[in-house]
Model the fold of this input.
Amino acid sequence: MTPKNPYRIALIHPSAGVNWSGGSEILAIELTRHLSKYFEVELLSQAAGENFSYPIKCIPRTHSYRAVRHPLLAPFLRKFTTPEIVLEHLTSFFPSLFRLLTKPADLIFPHNDYGGLAMAACARFLTKTPILFLEHNGLLGRGDDGSLLQNGKCLNRNLKFSPDHLILFDEATAEFVHTQKPAQTTSVIPNGVNLEQFTPDGKQIDLDLPKPIILCVASLNCQNQKRVELAIQAVSRLKEASLLVCGDGPDRPYFQAMGEQLLGTKRFAIRSFTFEQMPAVYRSANALTLPSIHEPFGLVYLEAMASGLPVVATDDEMRRYIVGDGGILCDVTDIDAYAEALKDALSGDWSICARESAARFSWDAIAMRYRDVILQTIHESKKFKRSRTQR
Done:
């Protein structure tokens, strides 16, 4: 039940509702929906449609992805590893700022990384509105060659904007923040999953591959951390299983050729699905794997387990926490061990264990933790303003 005089919260993500393949976009929409139970919430996005969304005019990343990589433009943009995101930040800055100045909020909650943070910092300077920020990258950063490294480069950059409260996915990243900036206020809150949308019961679709089907949901980019090639190699060691890769990206032809070479055209496919189709895709598969070297969180693990699928993934602290008893973790760089883990996952009924592991991250519970942090941040900001006024 919404209170009579709710605080007003402004979330920002220009691609939310436009791009459904990104975890930050999905999280922004889910948070907006669930926080609306407690506050007056508005999501600033290029997409319109839901009653809580306010459309801002900009060029979201998905609309310019191919254009900025055109041979005539690419040479001028090569210094940007993700020029489409830079363009989104630049074109959304002033429309978002104008909305926050003409329709003030009690808290600004950007989700589109440094572009949203920079805009929120400008709004805070003008209106004294506190900033809550969720660090989606974790300790990931990019090296000079554009490759992803676990070095905290992106996080250090974002810390320079001094958000009033910083949300992190795990304790390791929180410890890193405290070594870099001891005064930064932080909370650790995991990602969430919609247990009503992702469920073992419901419609399935024909994936046109022999069963059992192993699913890998990832963007297809050789420079990211997903390591889809390891999944292809491991499934090729199994006699009967098929591999369906759900995703797209600049290196799709490379992965298509590798998959067809190692698995053949009958046991391998790359396909793209809308977000609305994904629950049925999960239900139509038998297991999920994502052998990434590092994941800030990994929403696909929760979606798969909520759908009753076992997960096979990299053995590290974060995935031990997420997967729990809902799958098997292993050294995915040992292809034989990886293949054996996939075989074991396919041999049993994991539905109950997987669903119970996912239930720990229900959005109802996660949203209440965000509610408490938002109230704390607003109250501390108001207290600080009063103390300054009294001096």
Notes: The domain at 213-359 is CATH 3.40.50.2000 (Rossmann fold). Residues 363-390 form the longest helix (28 residues). Confidence is low (pLDDT under 50) at residues 141-149.
